Amino acid sequence: MTSSTPTLRDVAAEAGVSPMTASNALHGKPGVRESTxxxxxxxxxxxxxxxxxxxxxxxxxxxxxIHVIVNEFDSPFYSKLTQALSNEIVSRGLIPFIEQTQYSxxxxxxxxxxxxxxxxxFDGEILHATGLGTNVPLAKLNGGRPFVLxxxxxxxxxxxxxxxxxxxxxxxxxxHLIDRGCRNIAIVGHRFAPRADLAHAQNAFALRLRGxxxxxxxxxxxxxxxxxxxxxxxANGIIAGHAIxxxxxxxxxxxxxxxxxxxxxxxxxxxxxxxxxxxxxxxRVPQDVKVIGFDGVTSGSYTTPTLSTIQVDFTxxxxxxxxxxxxxIEHGNGNNEDGGETLPPRRAIIGYQLAERESTAV
Length: 362
Description:
Elements: H1 8-15, H2 19-26, H3 34-47, H4 53-60, E1 65-70, H5 76-91, E2 95-100, H6 105-114, E3 124-128, H7 138-141, E4 147-150, E5 160-163, H8 166-179, E6 185-189, H9 195-198, H10 204-218, E7 228-230, H11 234-252, E8 262-265, H12 268-280, E9 290-295, E10 308-312, H13 314-330, E11 347-349, E12 352-355
Parallel strand pairs: 1-2, 1-3, 3-4, 4-5, 5-11, 6-7, 6-8, 8-9, 9-10
Antiparallel strand pairs: 10-12
Helix pairs in contact: 1-2, 1-3, 5-13, 8-10, 11-12
């Protein structure tokens, strides 16, 4: 009697490929043309084929499940990040398993080493590192499984990393304000760091600070403690906006303040807060102060004025991350059992575009 349950051979026949090619396509392995992968996935869907996870793991030693760990779910930035990663993982016939840490190193350690599935179920892990500090031994906690960090800003990489264009893009953001005529620019994001300390920046906001400083320095514009405001979210952005406005109003009243005419912010939400804080004190954007953000996680239509920003390429980030992880998985995390070369830690930086909108209009 013929089984009514479709098999891998049925999928291969429907797609017009060999069973091996069908298997590789369904399991997201490299070496399969995208057109072939699409054809195999379509055949599997048509036949309602389901991979037998237990049998597959017993045969191959792999689950095809990728563990994704991020700081939180409840923000547009992480919504966009997890969507991009999930879409890329699924497009390769793999399965995403997503957890959040709420910015806690202890939660990250638990997700990597104490999760009930950590040592058995996941083929590899992708973790967004921002906010976890530089002292967490993440590469050791995950038991040697293939591993990619997002925005790991070590000077010398110890694990594979895919990073945002922190320094380069924030330099471009500051330069955009300079090109729009700004000469007294507030930097909103990381707390102030002396020039010497910026040489060894090892987190995203510090690198963005270094990028903004670089543009100001090249233009001969001031960079000092009084021009830097620490803020990474809307609430602290509002506080920074109030402080910037009070300096402007003091300067206008001849009381020795700083006549800020631009604000270069380390993320979009700090920028939204700055705009609100300026408005609270009767100052307008862009007429009084031009403001630019970073990340590009919301459409320009969501704010008034619409926000100029650095729009990073989340799709490219997802592709780079899954490419790196897949290569580690195929090479046994870089430890070639046949005596070949061990893959060294690698780093990639994603692209960006400067989206010019109303908040920096001339």
